[in-house]
Amino acid sequence: MRPTSMELLDSIAQALEDQVLPVVQDKWGASTLRSAMQLLRHLALRVALEPRILAADNDDVRRVLSLAYERLGQLGETDLAATAAAVLSSPVVDPLDVAAADALNETYLRAVEAIVAARDRLRSLDAPPTIHQSLVDYLQRRLERERGMILPVFLSPPF
Amino acid sequence: MDRVRVERYLSGRLGEDVRITSLSQAFPGLSRETWLVRLELGRAGAAVERGLVVRADSPGGPFPPVPLEYEYQVYVHLARTDIPVARPLWFDAAPELSDGRALFVRDLVEGSTLLPGLGDDTAAAAERRRRVAIEHIENLARLHRLDWSAAGFGSFMEVPASAEDAPRRELMRWWRVWERVRTAPLPIVTEALHWFADNLPKRAAALSLCKGQNGIGEEIWRDDRIVALCDWELANLGDPCQDLALSQGMLKLWDRARLVAHYERVAGFSLPPDNIDYYIVWNAFKSMLSLSNGLNSFLDGRYRRLARATLGYGKVKVYEHLLGAIIGLDLHGAANLVMRGQPNPYHNKKVAGG
Predict the structure, then answer these.
(1) Is the model's pTM score more than 0.80?
(2) pLDDT tens, B252-263?
(3) Fewer beta carbons within 10 Å, N or C terminal of chain B?
(4) Where in chain B is the domain with CATH 3.30.200.20?
(5) A6 CB within 8 Å of a chain B CB
(6) What CATH code is assigned to B3-107?
(7) pLDDT tens string B65-75
(8) How many CB atoms lie within 10 A of CB A60?
């Protein structure tokens, strides 16, 4: 459907910048306008990219957590293994349902965080180290995945 | 805040007639509101002019998760020393004036938080930058030399057991705060906190009263001299290298090595370069924590000011990427990365108050 959501949101932000911001004299009003423009520009990217990013990230983190679960079990880390198992038993969601995919992603991240937080304890058990590094590698891939909808936009003045 | 309510409130507190001649809010006031009040005090015909500042929590609470009364206590204790600060007058925990939000009142100090033209590309501006940088660093050195124990700061601040204990105590304190205020799981930040633990300074350069946010945009300047140090919400007892790292570009105003050497002469102790590098990176984490805390009131609907989202979500995402990028870097490399990404937004302002 044309114009796309991205085109509409981006053109609204551009119109505010070109036609409204120059004539807003009040600094508080102009500040709010700059914030609104920045959020609209983010939304223009997010609406288009978020479903694919979430789907790819959920696949990735699920795979990494599965490997971590196995290894944690071998190491006798029963609590962390149970944490991983609990989130891995979550039902798979429709990737087009962004809200559900986002909620699932947050559930996975909580488990990742719990395991990352145990770095010092795992370091003495997990030799050669695999669990922690595989999670950190995943987190870097995650940042790279979402970079396109974050960094170009949120480096502009936020207010 | 409207003029009538402020007049009524101040009249009640000061016990005299108050007529406000000017009331304005300092921009942008995203964390806390700062209201500049000029008034006539006393009966008509015998009134005296006076300036006050009302500092209040915003409807969404502050960015740094630190109570306003803490900052007020810093002012109260500093006012008994020779550190230049505005005189604090009173703290009000839940006044009707601000609909129950905490506020405190202090004297207004004439001056400006900005130095228009400082970033100009002229020889005169370059010389001015040198003078301003030295003025700032000398004020920090004098603050860091202060006998904070004799001035009573240990009565309401966390006191590290030693210079060796200070960096770890700072790390663990804010790690716990982060776990309390974050709005979502951010495991890359947890990993960054491991990086901080791995790169922790062995000891603080000294055990000093540190200001927190400092530099242009924070202090009150008059004729390029600091007449009052302001914004003390992040003040703490710890490594003075924190303040040099959190000086928001002041170390870039002139030759950094010469500035640090000048500081060391005034302060009477030396600053390990690694400590400064560490706190440059650490401040990226603390800034992210504060902005993230500010998002909570946006998410729960208490305060839907859009800048809370651009900062608490957008800028926090940028910091998340920045902290992700430091993992695997050594201390110096990480500090350089953070320094490149954080220009001071105030240095090129053309006019004060903009």
Answers:
(1) yes
(2) 999 999 999 999
(3) C
(4) 3-107
(5) no
(6) 3.30.200.20
(7) 999 999 999 99
(8) 16
Tens of pLDDT, residues B219-234: 999 999 999 999 999 9
Query: Which among B28, B187, B318 is the nearest to A139, CB-wise?
Result: B187
Q: Chain centroid to CA B145: how far?
A: 19
Question: What are the angstrom distances between the C-alpha of B83 and each of A32, B75, B87, B295?
Answer: 37, 10, 11, 34
**Is A158–B324 a contact, with Cβ atoms under 8 angstroms apart?**
no
* Cα B294 to Cα B311: distance, rounded to the nearest angstrom: 8
Amino acid letter, B190: T
- The answer to whether residue B341 scores a pLDDT higher than 80 is no
Which residue(s) pair with B33 in the sheet? B56
For residues B8 and B11, give the distance between their C-alpha atoms in angstroms, rounded to a whole number: 5
3-state secondary structure of B16: coil
Residues carrying CATH 3.90.1200.10, chain B: 123-340
Average pLDDT over all residues of chain B: 95
CB-count exposure of residue B180 (10 Å: 0-12, 13-18, 19+): exposed
ipTM of the complex: 0.95
Residues in chain B within 8 Å Cβ distance of A119 = 191, 194
CATH of B123-340, one of 2.40.50.140, 3.30.10.20, 3.90.1200.10, 3.40.228.10: 3.90.1200.10
Both structure tokens of B326: 């430091």
C-alpha B239/C-alpha B207 separation (Å) is 6
- Å between B279 CA and nearest CA of chain A: 22
CB pairs under 8 A between A and B: 85
Q: Tell me which DSSP letter residue B40 carries.
A: E
Q: Chain B residues with CB inside 8 Å of A27's CB? A: 27, 354
